[in-house]
Design brief:
The protein is mainly α. The chain is built from 24 helices and two strands.
Length: about 500
């Protein structure tokens, strides 16, 4: 009786599932938690700032000073994220994907302690400083985590595991909204615990992630350790015969040797990754500039115009968080079936339509009061659309469209665009909204349309394809010749792409 051969497609084995949970909960969850944790209890935190200032100077803080300090508290997080995104490339190359995530926990645990003692120390400066450090932690996580999960996953599960970054970010946002309710921790006595809780996921990751393997691709391609990579694959896949996947990684290694290691400067001048680079810039800029942060910023005003009391608007926000989680989970469970492009196009279509309808509702709600309720529906619809495509799917695509040699540098660019556009929207939108009011959502609808057109024309479907196959697809658009050379790899003769010498000389 012949022994059946192992399945060609990977399955969700316990080691793969637990490694994903450990990495995503410790990194993406605390990133999402810190996005939202200061929003709901902002009045309590401002009161602490004011009381501390009074004890020091015998007078309460001027409104302009308070506005400046609170702006720093909020904006230091994306600024730290930008800094983190600029150092992540060096870390993932030197320390590995898993090693980077473990080191990064230091940037979560230390600020958690500082914020937890800030009330006792009577130092609001500890909160502002901690927000910078937490931003660095988030900037590193935002790039290193999708890289790690994308390289752990078999190609038929790469989309599902890739969206776990956004799933856990959203879960972190949602739990921060729950814990921030005044009845729980969003009150004068509970807020230090609320802020310090960000260290718990990092501590759990430090205790669990060391038991799971490093990225097999990193181990084989960058470290040249085939035995360790083979053992890691066996643990992750659940069967002993992993030679097909080892051969695939050797082909990618050959492609990398032809391409060479790319720095960020090389990335901008290297013709063979030109459209990949443009694509991640468009995906990241579109994700932030399409209006998600503006919707969150304007949501309370929309709720109030619909007659929702300020004390109850926090519960409506929690409802929006539920919609966010449900739709993100739906995206994660369908991305391998429907594909990346379709989810992105559907998501941007819903977001653009919601922005246009919301603009009309805001313009005419003074004439037709019932339209204020339509505004709430538009907010929920926009969040649902963004959660289907623009939020989770770019984390998958940005891992897939670059080979190992260019991925760290590409993620540095990707992260920088993400955090810079995040900061720009948060800083500029209030002024735009004051200047043109509801018409600002027409701008966001236009950005949604442009992003959708670019995705439809340029970005190929990547589901079910190897990294090398995706690279070949982009090579045609980059007008780079791919030379096929045969190498003896485990008895087979796969074709490895080789780029022309003039494209690989630095």
């Amino acid at each position: 009786m012949e022994t059946p051969s192992p399945p060609r497609e990977g399955r969700l084995q316990p080691t793969l599932v637990l490694a994903t949970l450990s990495a995503a909960f410790g990194s993406a969850f605390q990133y999402g938690y810190n996005i939202a944790v200061v929003n709901t209890p902002h009045r309590v935190l401002k009161s602490f700032y004011n009381d501390t200032y009074f004890e020091r100077h015998g007078t309460f803080m001027d409104e302009k000073v308070m506005l400046l300090l609170w702006s720093c508290t909020v904006s230091m997080f994306p600024l730290g994220g930008l800094l983190g995104s600029l150092i992540v490339g060096v870390l993932v190359d030197k320390c590995g994907r898993k090693g980077t995530l473990l080191i990064n926990n230091v940037f979560a645990i230390i600020p958690a302690i500082l914020m937890g003692v800030s009330k006792v120390a009577k130092a609001f400066e500890l909160i502002i400083f901690s927000r910078v450090v937490l931003g660095i932690c988030a900037g590193i996580s935002y790039s290193a985590l999708p890289m790690y999960l994308g390289e752990l996953a078999p190609k038929n599960l790469r989309g599902t595991l890739g969206t776990m970054t956004e799933v856990f970010v959203i879960v972190g946002v949602f739990l921060a909204q729950i814990f921030s309710l005044q009845a729980i921790l969003g009150n004068p006595t509970g807020w230090p615990v609320l802020l310090a809780l960000t260290g718990v996921p990092a501590l759990l990751q430090l205790l669990s992630l060391p038991f799971f393997p490093e990225s097999p691709r990193y181990t084989l391609i960058q470290k040249g350790d085939e035995d360790t990579a083979r053992q890691a694959l066996r643990k992750l896949r659940g069967w002993a015969d992993v030679e097909d996947e080892m051969a695939e990684m050797r082909v990618e290694d050959q492609a990398e040797r032809a391409e060479g290691r790319l720095s960020v400067l090389n990335l901008f001048t290297f013709r063979s990754v030109r459209w990949q680079l443009i694509s991640i810039v468009v995906l990241m800029a579109g994700q932030q500039l399409s209006g998600i942060n503006a919707i969150n910023y304007y949501a309370d005003t929309i709720y109030e115009s619909a007659g929702v009391e300020a004390a109850r608007s926090q519960y409506v926000t929690v409802g929006a968080g539920v919609v966010n989680i449900v739709m993100t989970v739906i995206s994660a469970s369908t991305v391998e079936c429907l594909g990346r492009r379709r989810l992105l196009l559907v998501g941007y279509g819903i977001c653009g339509s919601a922005c246009l309808t919301l603009m009309l509702a805001l313009l005419f709600q003074s004439t037709v009061p019932e339209l204020s309720y339509l505004g709430i529906i538009c907010v929920f619809a926009y969040i649902a659309g963004h959660s289907i495509g623009p939020s989770p799917v770019p984390s998958v695509v940005r891992t897939e469209i670059f080979l190992q040699s260019s991925r760290p540098a590409a993620f540095m660019v990707d992260g920088a665009v993400h955090w810079l556009t995040n900061f720009i929207v948060g800083f500029v939108f209030p002024s735009i909204q004051e200047a043109i009011g509801a018409y600002s959502f027409l701008v966001f609808a236009g950005i949604c349309l442009l992003a959708a057109i670019y995705i439809y024309v340029v970005i190929p479907e990547t589901k079910g394809k190897t990294f090398v196959e995706i690279n070949r697809t982009f090579a045609k658009r980059n007008r780079v010749e791919i030379l096929e050379r045969k190498e003896d790899v485990t008895g087979a003769e796969p074709h490895a792409p080789s780029l022309p010498a003039k494209e690989t000389s630095f």
